[in-house]
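can u do me a favor
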């Protein structure tokens, strides 16, 4: 028996129809959305997360990011990588390209300098000149830095300053920058003059938690690490990967990266 479409039943039917249409639109959107897998160096994490969120909002797709140090990036790429895009220093990108793992598209994401951090309330080291940095390092109770690119450069710098053998015994090293920041932030040993070194972007991540960004190391001894994005030749989302890499080089992403401490 068919019910007549009376004025009283029309709103209910119209509501059901709209609900069905809305559900169909959601299903269609879900079917069209894709997930992009990105492997990236950890030093650009805050800027990349912001850029990825903007890309997701603009395209409706999902960006899943795995962050690692440069040595770990090499390991993951060597073991059947299930990624669509990789972001790493140019030398590392060159290695992957030499192994025919990457597409030809490239985008310069930016560069990150080395900075100094202390726990809030601790004495602030003088970073005005290389000599003042040298004296601050000698006077510190403890030095904390990583074993990745930033830490390797700092070690070579301290050796050039002829102070590494004098400070080595009070140095603590970690695999990555996050562990360095956690160490300085919590300062379990109670060392008042403890100095942490790391990528400026990583230091800025911990400012709201009680870490003090003293500033970049002096310009004369500054070391910048650049980062390049490239799609993987074996990626499942080739077109989307190309679009994401291009987006990272665009004005929206650049503004977000600069705000997070990643400069051109």
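np, heres the sequence
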């Amino acid at each position: 028996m068919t019910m007549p479409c009376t004025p009283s039943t029309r709103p209910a039917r119209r509501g059901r129809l709209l609900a069905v249409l809305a559900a169909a639109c959601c299903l269609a959107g879900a079917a069209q959305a894709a997930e992009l897998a990105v492997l990236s160096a950890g030093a650009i994490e805050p800027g990349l997360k912001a850029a990825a969120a903007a890309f997701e909002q603009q395209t409706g797709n999902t960006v899943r990011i795995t962050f690692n140090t440069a040595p770990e990036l090499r390991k993951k790429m060597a073991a059947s990588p299930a990624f669509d895009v990789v972001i790493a220093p140019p030398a590392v990108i060159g290695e992957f390209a030499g192994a025919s793992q990457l597409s030809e598209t490239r985008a310069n994401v930016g560069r990150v300098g080395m900075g100094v951090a202390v726990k809030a309330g601790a004495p602030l080291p003088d970073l005005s000149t290389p000599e003042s940095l040298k004296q601050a390092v000698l006077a510190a109770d403890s030095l904390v830095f990583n074993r990745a690119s930033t830490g390797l450069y700092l070690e070579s710098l301290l050796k050039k300053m002829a102070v590494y053998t004098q400070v080595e015994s009070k140095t603590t090293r970690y695999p990555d920058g996050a562990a360095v920041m956690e160490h300085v932030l919590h300062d379990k040993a109670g060392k008042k003059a403890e100095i942490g070194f790391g990528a400026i972007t990583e230091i800025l991540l911990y400012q709201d938690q009680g870490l003090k960004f003293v500033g970049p190391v002096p310009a004369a001894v500054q070391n910048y690490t650049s980062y390049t994005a490239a799609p993987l030749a074996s990626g499942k989302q080739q077109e989307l990967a190309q679009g994401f890499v291009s987006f990272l080089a665009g004005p929206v992403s650049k503004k977000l990266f600069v705000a997070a401490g990643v400069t051109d």
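The chain is about 45% helix and 20% strand. hope that helps!!
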